[in-house]
Amino acid sequence: MQIPEAFKEKMRGLLSDEDYEKLMTSYDGTVNKGIRTNTLKCTPEEMAQKTPFELEPVDWCPTGYYIDSDIRPGKNPAYYAGLYYVQEPTAMTSAEALAPEPGDWVLDLCAAPGGKSTQLACKLEGQGLLVANELVNNRAEILASNVERMGVANALLFNEFPERLAARFHERFDKILVDAPCSGEGMFRKDNGAAEEWNPERVVNCAKRQLKILESVDKLLKPGGIVVYSTCTFSPEENEQVIEDFLGNNRYELMDIDLRGLDDRGRPEWSEKGTPALTKTLHVMPFHVRGEGHFIAKLRKTAACPLEEEPLKLKGKSRLKPAGRRDLDDYETFAKAYLNRRFGNLHLQGDQLYSLPEGITLRDIEGLKVLRPGIHLGALKKNRFEPSHTLAMVLRPEDFKTIYTVRDEEEAYTYLKGEPIIGTDLKGWVLVCFDKWPLGFGKASQGMIKNHFPKGLRIRKK
Ligand SMILES: C[S@@+](CC[C@H](N)C(=O)[O-])C[C@H]1O[C@@H](n2cnc3c(N)ncnc32)[C@H](O)[C@@H]1O
Asked: What residue stretches are annotated with the SAM-dependent MTase RsmB/NOP-type domain (predicted)?
């Protein structure tokens, strides 16, 4: 890996000789890999039973574990059942610092691929709302797929500019995470491209963009609400200086961050004005801990922000409409035959049926680019309802009347490859489970289960 000379020079100026040498040596090491338990589905102990690799606890995240760097955790049935999320250990810090509570309205403004969104969802325990937003289209689809796999039931996903969300959700959120797009200096070891793309102008441009994103946060956050700002870079321009500029223009106070094993405080001397409270921010440096590197700041909003005189206009009608009773005949027939759980706030987009999160109305989403308006329950076909994979992933076995539990890992792979399962006397829709965790749907008849695991997710080989 080629570390840019200008970066080396900059870090040599910022760090002590000893720390600089340690940083450079850290680039010769291997990338730290981690997984985090999806507590919406299982406990860490249950996850450990279903994963064949060694797990070593991460200090600052009670559900995070280091795994050996040779392991490919995305190849395991437990992965497809959503028992864990593969996440770099220092990336687990931001959601821990924000610490939402069940019932909160939480916004993750820069969300793809979804590591922190799914971690926030665990903390909400299915209560309250998670709005996860990703601006870049193809990354947004990856976010949707991860939120689906983890079985998050109370999420609304957008593919939007922060300022457009701010025009609709004025001071509606209790907590906001800004895991900002950055120059990625903490990604050099993990992603060679990050080192190749790095240059001093990029750092300056990232800082401008970060400040602009934070301006939208001020409009979105309730007075008294909390925002965590994080980056995976070391540069003062994108860390201490962004926070100092934001504090200068808005009424916020920095809060202490208390995460086990982390005590490398932000440096006022790396900012323009030397704001003393910057010591409340946190650096997570790859030469102090086992991880790639992060910066976190936690701030409380101390005063309301006025409504804009000329707010941005959001045009366009939503293609969603509330589902009427007659629209739902086929869904109700399906629900009566198979579901032990009710879904509310039902809306249709064409023939696709969604359950919107509690408290969300069409007025909230009209004119915005919605990626997923809630749980995609399935499609109303001619005279029948076809359940979606998303529905399978939010269910627990007790929510469905016909369950097929795969006999062993081998049979789990058979299902995940898209092959039929032979030898059953079940009939109709079946929730195929790996132990007590759904993998997806199948349809049983004549002694076999036809596979409904989505084609795009199927694995080719173990
Ligand atoms: C550091 S990544 C987020 C990682 C994510 N939080 C996770 O844990 O998986 C930053 C994200 O911000 C998105 N982004 C880029 N420009 C943006 C902008 N102007 N406003 C908001 N998000 C932006 C990027 O596409 C990227 O997905």
From this structure: 1-302
Q: Check residue 368 and report its DSSP letter.
A: S
How remote is the CA of residue 178 from the centroid of ligand 1, in Å? 8
Residue 411 labeled ligand binder: no
The length of the chain in residues reads 462
5-301 has which fold? Rossmann fold (3.40.50)
DSSP class per residue in 171-228: T-EEEEEEE-----GGGTTT-HHHHHH--HHHHHHHHHHHHHHHHHHHHHEEEEEEEE
pLDDT digits (tens, 9 = 90+) for 241-296: 999 999 998 899 999 999 999 999 999 999 999 999 999 999 999 999 999 999 99
- What long-range pairs does 445-449 form, CB within 8 A, spacing at least 24? 447/422, 447/423, 448/420, 448/421, 448/422, 448/423, 448/424, 449/404, 449/420, 449/421, 449/424
Q: Which fold would CATH assign to domain 315-394? A: Nuclear Transport Factor 2; Chain: A, (3.10.450)
Q: Using one digit for the tens of pLDDT, what is the confidence trace for 14-47? A: 999 999 999 999 988 889 999 999 999 999 999 9
The alpha carbons of the chain give a radius of gyration, in whole angstroms, of 23
Q: Which ipTM value was assigned to this complex?
A: 0.99
* Cα 123 to ligand 1 centroid, rounded to whole Å: 21
> Which residues form the catalytic set?
232
